[in-house]
Structures are given as structure tokens and as C-alpha cells.
Amino acid sequence: MRRFTFSALSVLAMLAALPLGISTSAQAFPDRPVRIVVPFPPGGSNDVIARLMAQKLSELWKSSVVVENIGGAGGNIGADSVARAAPDGYTLLLAAPGPLVVNPTLYEKLAFDPAKDFAPVALVASVPIVLAVNPSVKANTVAELIALAKAQPGKLNFGSSGNGSTNHLSGELLKSVAKLDIVHIPYRGAAPAMNDLLGGQIPMMFDNMPAVRPQVEGGKIRALAVASKTRSKALPNVPTMIEAGVPSFEATAWFGLVAPAKTPPDVLKILAETSAKALADSDIAAKFDKLGAEPGTITGEAFGTFLKAEADKWGKVVNSAGLKIK
Predict the structure, then answer these.
(1) Among the three residues 252, 280, 310, which one is the final residue of a domain in this structure?
(2) Distances in Å between the alpha carbon of 203 and those of 121, 141, 157?
(3) pTM above 0.90, yes or no
(4) pLDDT of 11 above 90
């Protein structure tokens, strides 16, 4: 009985020593590798951003952070795997808008509900979207490309990283605004689409600045315009779509970090605070800048509000274009 009493008192003493409001799981977090799932193949902007973020988080936590690519179905397969993961903070999703805010409107059925199955952590990065063409395309400006498309209705294809991606929707927006008959070719990620653009299998695509910039600077593709409101310092000589003669055309890609729903609030707090610290670091800012990306500045509930606004915005684009995937 004395041994039992002593043991019980020892446990109570240890519990009393813990700071109030912080669970034992949060105190130890992370005490094993954290996995960040990228729902697209390696090599695209999402993958590049995720690996830079994973490296910085690993440095701050002094613990391993690994990136796993689970592509397919416009990001839905990888996103669903995280939605079903244990809500302990050790499996996260770093994704583009598609699986987080677009696909609920685009797909008739989803195995997960982003609004209910994920807890917002942080906006990691925002990047301009660039309209690029293969050098063989006889168009040096957006106006020339539009004229070429109108002269060959149904003949000009544009690639994208997948159905419902902001790159896909940017193409649909151009179709609508310029009244073009061009055909969408979806890929299982930005990298394979870029490979086909480089090889001339597709003549054009909208893609994110981190993937486009090195190919443009290497002379392998030609950038006609950026879809952001202002020019990008990554490609300062490339006009905006508005400057190129397409009124009110604006589209920006971003990448956000989320955790499975029901992840403990104190663990979410650690994830958000560490993410904010990582994104404020001058080293990651410099690396993002080289890619043409800007570090995110919102976390937690503010990021959740951002996600809701984005879901409404892109949902309207999907509905107005009459897009639906079974």
C-alpha cells in the first residue's frame, strides 16, 4: 500500500509540474519525424515549396521532417490520405488550392470534405502564375496567341497540373474572357506538364513562377505574361495579362499547410507558431525570392478565413465555366 501511495503521489507530482493548458503530447511535439504530404508528383512548384519548408521546420525542431509525394486525381488522393491520418500533427498536407478549395465544387463526389476534415495551419507561399509557350509557337505576345487560337478553333491545347488546379482555371478564364476554343489537357502534376511543354507536345500552359522561371531564363520556353496584378520582379520584363490586353485578368497560386481535423489545439498552435517563425526567416525568404515566391504571413484562424474566401472565389469560376468531374 505504501508503494502504491508513493507511486501515485509521484505521478501526481509530475503532472502538477506540467504547465497548465499544455498537454503532454504537445510538450513532446515533435518527438518523431513529421511527414508532409504533397498531393502531386515531384518537381512541381508545390513540391519545391514543400521541401524548402520541410528543411526549415526540421532545423527549428531539430527533428526530421520528410516530404512524401502522393499524386493523382487533381490532388485528391494525397489530400484524402491526410484527412484519414491520425490527428496528432505528425502527418500534414501542403497543397495548392485544388484539393483545398476548388475540388469540392469541381468534383461531384469527394472522399473528404476540406472544410470539415482539415484544420488550417499556415499560408506558406504565394506565387505568380505565368502564361508560357513552347518556342515553336508563332506568338510573341498574348494578343498574337489569341489571334492564333481564333484562327485555329479547337486546335490549340493548353496543359495544366490537373483538373481544378489554378493553372487549369486560369486557362478556362482566358477561354471565357477572350472567347477562345482551346482544349485543356490535364496532367498528374505540374512537372510532367512542363516536360511536355518543353518537348513541344503541348504548345502552351499557365504554370507557377518557381517552375517557369528557370526554363524561361534558360531559353527553353517563352513567357508571354504574368497573371498577377503587377509585374513580378522574378521576370520584370514580362507584362501582366492586363497590360497585355486582357482586362481584369488576375490569378495567383498559393500553397497552404493543413493538419487533419481534431488535431489537438495545442499541437496546432505549435505548428502555426513554428511555421510563422520559419516563414519569417531571412534564409527561406531569400530562397523563395529566387523562385519568384513570397512567404505567407497568416496562420491559424486567419488562414481558415482565407481558405473560405478562396473556396467561394474559385467555386464561382468553376460554376461559370460549367466544369464538373464525376
Answers:
(1) 252
(2) 37, 14, 6
(3) no
(4) no
